[in-house]
């Protein structure tokens, strides 16, 4: 249970059974060395500061201005990160320590770089907008020019055709026609037109609105642009159409302009003159070329600036985060009456006293302070935080335990046993050494590449699997072990350790039924004899084996939980919990289900045909009846009567004595307080941990009695329900085995039954996907959750209160990796 710490020689060995001994310390720090002191304590990471200014708002605290300043620098750094991410410029690793730079220099440099980058971005945005507008203008000139040129050609052809027809007509009619023509020419109206681009998804609605607004007194033509264009207003790619609208009158023009504005249609000037059109296209193309060159130069300058920022980005980022964390911590300290010192209070492990004092001394020397800091231990009745020193192997298991509830201060830690029992109970439900090897290979990939993967951002599911890689490693190893016991490799049995102990009696034993088998060799040395697989009695035999095994495992683990409650009571010097909680619970559980476990072992050893269901049921219903053929050992009836009597007596022993004893202890303690002795001068931490210790609080006997009644009823009913809950080990193990067998027989063997390579390939692919998706993912998750429930509910509720709070020291360890 004691493990060597990973911090070199500075710290004592880790003890996962009990949390570290904690102390409440007070630090009196001169103002001139306060910043450096907090910085060194953050590097140490072994002090959890208490907020001594909780009644003040954030704006009323001493260092509010410095935090605002750091917040502004953090905003600039986030701006740089976003710009670097968009440009694809990576941040380089730190080459110098962050302590070598000054915060004022960083602030000035960040301000200069931000101003320069904002100016470059603004100029680039203007140029890019102009470029996008010219691109749209060029498209309008090309598409509208095509429309006008085709219309001009069509009009010319039509005019020449009319003239050729008029030349052959009668000369007498010519003066009348010429007169009519001259009259019509005086009535001609000059049409105006507008050109531009409109989003394609709005084009039909745009055309319809124009038609209705002008009552049909327009003529509109649209041309589709094949490639998406970048909109100058939004900067995003959009599919657009070029439009030309002909209208008559200023009133119609004003309506069209408003509709174009409402639909986000960009308008551009256009000339009817073909020569002018060609000249405008030439000018726009030249300007586009110039803008492209200018934009490329601006982007190059921007990338050079971002690379300059990227060289020191991580350094600045870490420096600003540390400074902000330091000032947040300084705001938790209170000023003394002279306003020359800061007073801090916080929790720290006892073993860290020397390291903390060394940090205080170094801070005083480095800050040239004339007065050193004062370190002293305070006496308190407040419950300290819980601190377990873990490594990368034990941290995931401790997180599983803490998810149920953080251990009370120095309460027995279930994580010590969970390291082994959790993966083992998982493996009981997931017993297949083929599947275990698959999970082992996947886990070894995570472990062998853990240095590289730990520095990368992984997805949520991958991050969870990587964090629990050592738990999964244990789960896979235990799965291989239980798979060898079950003798299952993807549901296929193998005689690995010896040939089967049974053989067919004659050639008619082709169905491999146990009726036609005879024992010809020694018993199979390890695990299940492979001959059981495929036999008619396989399912009844495995059902009986796994069900009884589940009960044995469950009763053992529940007994372990009750034994842990004894060590808790002994540690906290609570004799009441030993005599009136631990002993009656042990008697009650083992008088019933401990006895059942003994009967199972006796039946296995003797080969008896006794019905254990009948024995247990009639032990309660008819305890005086003779057992007959269900008797497993001499004087069994007398033993059962004694056990039943002990179980019945243990219930009132759990319920009645404890509340009355607690009441008597409270009265004696309250009476003794009238002449209490003076406190000792020892400055070590004194914490009231006894379950019946309430100090000056009013003792509510009724509340204590009801609480004990609930606890007793919960244990009595839980003894039955929790034992039944362990049958999930049998159920999930059977389900996993049957699913694996179905996939093997109904997919793989069925495919191999056909003389077709294509069907073989399809069958293998379906088998692989079914095995990975169902058995290696869904079944793994299912078994994991059931093992989790067995530990949280059936095991930990026997002794684990889990009402503590975790030790959260001020540290810089994770500052560089966390986003604000």
TrEMBL record:
TM ranges: 424-448, 469-486, 549-567, 579-602, 638-656, 757-778
- Give the principal location in a single coarse category: membrane
Task: Cite a single GO BP annotation.
Answer: vacuolar acidification
Matching InterPro entries: V-ATPase_116kDa_su, V-type_ATPase_116kDa_su_euka
Q: How does it sit in the membrane?
A: Multi-pass membrane protein
Which Pfam families does the UniProt entry name for this protein? Answer: V_ATPase_I (PF01496)
Which controlled-vocabulary keywords does the entry list?
Answer: Coiled coil, Hydrogen ion transport, Ion transport, Membrane, Transmembrane, Transmembrane helix, Transport
Please give the superkingdom of this protein's source: Eukaryota
Single Gene Ontology MF annotation: ATPase binding
Q: Where in the cell is it found?
A: Membrane
The parts of the chain that form a coiled coil are 96-137
Listed GO CC annotations: proton-transporting V-type ATPase, V0 domain; vacuolar proton-transporting V-type ATPase complex
What family does the Swiss-Prot or TrEMBL record give for this protein?
Belongs to the V-ATPase 116 kDa subunit family.
Cited function? Essential component of the vacuolar proton pump (V-ATPase), a multimeric enzyme that catalyzes the translocation of protons across the membranes. Required for assembly and activity of the V-ATPase.
Query: Mind telling me what this protein is named?
Result: V-type proton ATPase subunit a
């Amino acid at each position: 249970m004691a493990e060597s710490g990973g911090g070199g020689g500075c710290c004592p060995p880790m003890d996962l059974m009990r949390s570290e001994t904690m102390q409440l310390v007070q630090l009196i720090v001169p103002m001139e060395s306060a910043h450096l002191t907090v910085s060194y304590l953050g590097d140490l990471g072994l002090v959890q500061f208490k907020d001594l200014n909780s009644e003040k708002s954030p704006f009323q605290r001493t260092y509010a201005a410095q935090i605002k300043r750091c917040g502004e620098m953090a905003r600039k750094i986030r701006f740089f990160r976003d710009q670097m991410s968009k440009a694809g410029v990576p941040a380089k690793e730190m080459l110098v320590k962050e302590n070598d730079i000054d915060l004022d220099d960083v602030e000035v440099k960040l301000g200069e770089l931000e101003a320069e980058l904002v100016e470059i971005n603004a100029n680039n945005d203007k140029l890019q907008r102009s470029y996008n507008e010219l691109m749209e203008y060029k498209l309008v000139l090309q598409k509208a020019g095509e429309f006008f040129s085709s219309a001009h050609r069509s009009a010319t052809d039509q005019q020449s055709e009319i003239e050729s027809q008029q030349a052959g007509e009668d000369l007498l009619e010519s003066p009348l026609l010429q007169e009519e023509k001259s009259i019509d020419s005086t009535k001609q109206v000059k049409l105006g037109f507008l050109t531009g681009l409109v989003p394609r998804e709005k084009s039909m609605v745009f055309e319809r609105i124009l038609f209705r607004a002008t009552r049909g007194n327009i003529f509109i033509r649209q041309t589709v642009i094949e490639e998406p264009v970048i909109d100058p207003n939004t900067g995003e790619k959009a599919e657009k159409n070029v439009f030309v609208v002909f209208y008559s009158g200023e009133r119609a023009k004003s309506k069209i302009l408003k509709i174009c504005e409402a639909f986000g249609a960009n308008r551009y000037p256009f000339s009817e003159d073909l020569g002018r059109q060609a000249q405008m296209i030439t000018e726009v193309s030249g300007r586009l070329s110039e803008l492209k060159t200018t934009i490329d130069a601006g982007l190059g300058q921007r990338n050079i600036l971002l690379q300059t920022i990227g060289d020191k980005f991580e350094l600045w980022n870490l420096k600003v985060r540390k400074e902000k964390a330091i000032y947040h911590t300084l705001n938790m300290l209170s000023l003394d009456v002279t306003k020359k010192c800061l007073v801090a209070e916080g929790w720290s492990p006892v073993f860290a006293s020397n390291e903390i004092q060394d940090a205080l001394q170094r801070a005083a020397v480095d800050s040239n302070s004339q007065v050193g800091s004062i370190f002293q231990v305070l006496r308190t009745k407040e419950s300290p935080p819980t601190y377990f020193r873990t490594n990368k192997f034990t941290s995931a298991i401790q997180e599983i335990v803490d998810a149920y509830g953080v251990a009370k201060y120095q309460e027995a830690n279930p994580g010590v046993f969970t390291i082994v029992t959790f993966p083992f109970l998982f493996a009981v439900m997931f017993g297949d050494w083929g599947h275990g090897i698959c999970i082992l290979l996947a886990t070894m990939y995570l472990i062998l590449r853990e240095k590289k993967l730990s520095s990368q951002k992984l997805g949520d599911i991958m991050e969870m699997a990587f964090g629990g890689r050592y738990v999964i490693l244990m789960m896979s190893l235990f799965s291989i072990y239980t798979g060898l016991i079950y003798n299952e490799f993807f549901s296929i049995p193998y005689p690995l350790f010896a040939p089967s102990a049974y053989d067919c009696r004659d050639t008619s034993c082709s169905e491999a039924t146990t009726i036609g088998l005879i024992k010809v060799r020694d018993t199979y040395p390890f695990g299940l004899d492979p001959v059981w697989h495929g036999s008619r009695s396989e399912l009844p035999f495995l059902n009986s084996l796994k069900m009884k095994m589940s009960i044995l495992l469950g009763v053992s683990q529940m007994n372990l939980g009750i034994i842990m409650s004894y060590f808790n009571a002994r540690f906290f010097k609570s004799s009441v919990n030993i005599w009136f909680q631990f002993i009656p619970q042990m008697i009650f559980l083992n008088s019933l289900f401990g006895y059942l476990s003994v009967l199972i072992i006796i039946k296995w050893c003797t080969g008896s045909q006794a019905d254990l269901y009948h024995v247990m049921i009639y032990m309660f219903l008819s305890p005086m009846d003779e057992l007959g053929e269900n008797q497993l050992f001499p004087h069994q009836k007398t033993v059962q009567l004694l056990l039943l009597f002990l179980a019945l007596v243990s219930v009132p022993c759990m319920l009645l004595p404890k509340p009355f004893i607690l009441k008597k202890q409270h009265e004696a303690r309250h009476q003794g307080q009238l002449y209490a002795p003076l406190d000792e001068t020892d400055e070590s931490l004194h914490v009231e941990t006894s379950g019946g210790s309430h100090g000056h609080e009013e003792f509510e006997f009724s509340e204590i009695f009801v609480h004990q009644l609930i606890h007793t009823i919960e244990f009595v009913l839980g003894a039955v329900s929790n034992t039944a809950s362990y049958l999930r080990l049998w159920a999930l193990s059977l389900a996993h085995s049957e699913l694996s067998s179905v996939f093997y027989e109904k997919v793989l063997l069925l495919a191999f039954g056909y003389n077709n390579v294509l069907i073989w390939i399809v069958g293998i692919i379906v088998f692989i996907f079914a095995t990975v998706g169902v058995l290696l993912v869904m079944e793994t998750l299912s078994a994991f959750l059931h093992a989790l429930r067995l530990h949280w509910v059936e095991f930990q509720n026997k002794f684990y209160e889990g009402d503590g709070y975790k030790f959260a020291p001020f540290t810089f360890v994770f500052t560089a990796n966390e986003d604000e």
